[in-house]
User: What shape does this take?
Amino acid sequence: MIVENGRIAEIGPASGVPADLEVVDGKGMTLAPGLIDMHHHGAVGVRAEQGPEAVAKISQYLPSTGTTSWLPTVSTLDGVKGIVAAKKSGLPGADAPGIHMEGPYLAPKRLPGEKVEPKTVDLKELDEFMTAAEGMLRVMGLAPELPNALAGIRHLASNGIVVAAAHTKITYSQFMEAVDAGLRHVTHVYNVMSRLHHREPNMVGGVLVTDEITGELIADGHHVHPAAMEVLIRCKGVERVAMISDSAAFVGMPDGEYGDLVKKDGVLRRKGFDASTDHTLAGSIWPLGYNLANLVASTKYTLQDAVTMASLTPARIVGIADRKGSIAPGKDADLVLLNSELAPALTIVGGRVAFSDGTVAAGL
Assistant: This one.
């Protein structure tokens, strides 16, 4: 393969490479398209919501996990503006080709004794988000049961935004009404949604049988059982399931207490909660590359399947597959070399080395 000006110029045998080019020898490793994390809140102690400096810090970190593109995921107008500003300033690591908004229109979580009023979907506020995003808003997650949500879905869809059902307890019939309104995606399938029952399929049932719908999967081994992962992929196919991290700010951070959250034993929980309590998981603490390796190790699906779900499928969902998500001439040179343990040894973003573990000689 020959990389020129940040793009893949040619694919062919090594014998055809001009002698004056810098060479990367990936013998014994697997070359894959760079991973695309379409749902990522934060890492290394910061959240994308915190502004341009936080976005840049996360961008710098992500290539070490094999991720070359990500959709910073926020819920506020200021969060959107911060991502746009960071993008204009130039990101030091992984590219941010779009924005994912998860909220502010989510069904409220009610802990014992709490009373939380549902938020009405405001079309004028949606317009503010789209204007501030300057064309970067790719995905908007909301709860379809909220007041005026169906109108919001229609409005977003008519403006080219991928509308996702997120943090919701809707029934099967409510889900299908949302699909009719323009809903086309579902945030982290199985997590924070109404569960499948044989007499009331609810939202999970709707996801599994509706071909128009794509869905996200947190494959860290803690959020979804391997058998449930397989059910989802069997029903939807790898072309409709996007592997995501849904990472909180504590990816890349040591175990310990962080405010009212506790990172321990591979999960993030609210302080005082355990596995017997509802709403115990407070976000993921594993990067997308870890999830990819875990899915291969814990299910029947192949590395090629996993890479597709972590690269080409999300690229198609968010509308960037013309330049990212696969290895082909003319596409961005976003690449990762995976070692025998499926960990990234070398990550290239836009034709430049963004991460190396030191085991691969690279002079790009």
Observations:
- Residues 131 and 353 are 34 Å apart (CA to CA).
- The first strand starts at residue 2 and ends at 4.
